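User: We ran a pulldown and think these components assemble together. Before we commit to crystallization trials, I'd like a predicted model of the whole complex to look at. Sequences follow.
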Amino acid sequence: MARFHNQKKKKVFVKLAVKKNQPSVDHITGNKIPKSFVFSRGKLPGPLRQLQMDLRKLMLPYTALNLKEKKRNSLKDFLNVAGPMGVTHFLILSKTATAPYLRIGRTPQGPTLTFKINEYSLAVDVAQSQLRPRCPQDLFQNPPLIVLSGFGSGDQHLKLTTIMFQNIFPAIDINTVKLSSCQRIVLLNYNKDTKLIDFRHYSIRLQPVGVSRRIRKIVQNHQVPDLRNLQDVSDFVTKAGYGSESEADDEAATVTLASDLGRINKASTKSAVKLQEIGPRMTLQLIKIEEGLCSGGVIFSEYGNGDGKKKPEKEDTKKQKDTDEDEEDMNDDQENLEEDLEDDEED
Amino acid sequence: MAEETHVAEPAKAQNKRRVGKKGGSKGKKRPRMLEGMPQNKPKKIDRKMKKLYRKRARDYNSDGDDNDEDEEEERDVGSDGEAEKEGEEEEEEEGLDVNGDDGNSDEGEESNRIQPGITMFVDGSRAFKMAFKSIIKKSVPEDALGPVLSAHKKLIAEKLAEEEAERQVKGEAKKEKQLLAEKGHVKPANYLDLNEKFLIGVATKGVVKLFNAVNKAQHAQKGLDPLRYKDAKAIRKRRKEAFFSALGKTSKPAVDTHAKGHTSKGEVDGEGPAWAPLRDNYMLTNSKLKDWDKMPETTAADDFGRMSEDSSSDGD
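Assistant: Here's a predicted model for the assembly, 663 residues in total across the polymer chains.
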């Protein structure tokens, strides 16, 4: 009976929906493919849960879209599963009274970056704000590109952030990459003055340059055009339509393709790059960097007490290594709270 | 009369009902009705209808324990308004009974049994109709509490106020919670403001950079099939050249915006010397790296650890 009880206790309660046959190594370049878990610690309100779902979609295809978590799952449970699944990154959402937080950590040993989410918009909100939201079927079948901008100021914590985000998505080998697999882009823009990071997610669309909108549409849609108002068929080609024609094609946004892309973008012609936001949208503030996974010494802290904490914390971690991770989580949250309070006082 | 002895029970019930009400006229009327009855005969209820009536009657009576009591009550209600009409109807029904007895004894018995139910139902519905009409007709002073509650007006008003206050408190708490849950949640504007445009511009620049790099790289190896041994060799050679030429570039890209993530590590980054092992003073400045062979071998995280150490050594 006791034995049975033990067995029950050891059971891991993380249900997984990761495809078993997903490769852990890119078959062309041989690079290791980073995979991620997006989950939450503590109970999240509705909009944040939606944000978690959006983040999971953003991290596709190398993430667990339907990761089921339970209240009793500790960080250790996730870690235990992460090893065999080849999961390299954790994105952890949590919420305190002051603000929601996003932690990005490498498994199994860290480091962990803690971001405070100052503002966020869900993918739904973004879609609602647009006249024609765009979502092609194969949008989420390939990993996004990542563009980091404004991080080159030489600060160590920014470098670390750069490296962290670069490694979260699979690296692209420009010699072998197919342009059709570049459908999305994640942008992280660091603003030096406000010290905030803008997190945006766009879809990439390519359009041939120098072709009138009507011609483009007829090639794209395969539909019979409306010729009622025209005197001659030639008018259809020669007459300029209205609408986005006035939008002069930016020279900087045109590219020459290495290969044909779809039906309308031929390798020989120039194409314009159009980006449309798909969301989610976040404004992040780097608060803290820890050495371990949600534990360990504080390498960097926004509120300036990182150096003071560093040494005692390091010793602590050696002792605490065997203790429950969740307690440390709690500690972290408390620390965040304290820091927030300090911040408020400063303001 | 023979009829009365024949079906004792229902007759009794009828008698009971008639207590104190113009029973005297009944006896005289009955024979007349008997004579008049043959014309009514075609109206007689057929089986289906009878069944239906019986069922309705049963349903109607089902909630009362004692049939008689119910009947009496109904009578009382009905008697206020239209005593006369009811009287007529009863007479008619009784006439029916008699006829049934004459023609078919079985049917007669049956109809007798159900008779009180039917009467009652009709009576009851009419009485109910009247009562309802009278209530509806009444004009009521406009009041939130309504006429019925007027007696408890004070108490109920108090209770309502209390409830209202409670609800308000609850609503406020809920609102607060909602606000807390929505904290940081912002709905984006319908138009692209300056910042968003700038961000899109930055992202576009990154994409263009990548696509151009891809174009450059893949244009060079056009026409070469990597599956063929000879071509593969040529490709490898070219890549090697490109790699070393990139390493030779000492200058960092001057542009602040750099699309890093999508370039494969060594080849296009152009940060060769930034990589620690290529520097002349590699492993000389950092005492940690001197005893590298004594350090335990770590796994995937090692890569990252090295990088972070590297960057830290940069800072020194």
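Residues 203-277 of chain A form one domain. That may be worth checking against your pulldown data before setting up trials.

User: Thanks, that helps.
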